[in-house]
Each structure stands twice: as C-alpha cells, then as structure tokens.
Amino acid sequence: MKKYSTIIIVVNLVAFFFFFNHSIVKKEQLLEQGELILLELAPVDPRSLMQGDYMRLRYTLSEDINSDSIPKRGFCVVGLDTHGVAQKKRFQKDRTPLGQNEYLIEYTSQNRSNINIGAESYFFQEGEAEKYESAEYGAVKVDKKGNSILVGLYDADLKKIE
Q1: Domain ranges for the chain
Q2: For residue 103, what pLDDT is reported?
Q3: pTM
C-alpha cells in the first residue's frame, strides 16, 4: 500500500508542476506577443487608494453599466484611439463577432455594481506611493482570446511611471 501512496504523490507533483509551468509559459507569451492597451483609470476613494504597497484600480470602461443587462462572464470589446487608449464598444458573451481593429478583454461581473476588467490591484515597492498618485492609465497586454495582464501604470502624458 505504501508503494501506491508514493506513486500517487509523485504523479500529483508532476501534474502540479506541469500545469504551474504551463501557466508561466502562457503569461510570458502574453507579455511578449500581446497588444499593449491603455485603460483609463476611474477615480477611487482616496482613503482606500493607498494601502501599504499596492494601489486599488478601477477602470472607466466598467462605469455606468447595468450588470443585469450583460452576462456574468464575457468580453468587453474595445477599440483604440490614436494614442492606444481603449474605448468601450460593447459587451458580449462570446469571442465572436469581432470587427477589424477591435480587441477583447475578459470580464467578470460579481454583483450589480462591480464589473472586473483586468487587474484590480497594482503592487509596487514600499515607500513609492507618491510616484503612482499621478497614474491616469493602467497598461495591459491582451491576446486574441481576451486574456490580459497588467504591465504598468501611465501618467496623463502617456509615459510609463517607473
């Protein structure tokens, strides 16, 4: 019986490491090949904006939406202006239809007033909060499937805050 327990543990560890490494490879591909899109940040209550070493993010794309009229999970379809800033076009359940120069960003809707588009927090080194207070845009890389990853924050002049 002990022999089977060892085999089961080894098989589970191999499976875990396989899926873990697969996830890392997918994120690396998204960083290298994804389309850079700037999402305009919406105001957040200043008392909860800075807490320790992270900033809570909210995007203007998710404002003024009746979440009862859209599916709980789906895609926000955006177009880009001349500066690469996303402009909301529509919400849809599936990846298609998708027009020319349109991009997908996967979203989830947890309740009537909260639609999550992209990353909801930005982590930075402790003591650097003032540097990020001027952030106007969250920069995400997206792939053709609507997966996104936050890659930084940009100021009003569309310069990456570093």
Answers
A1: 1-33, 35-154
A2: 94
A3: 0.78
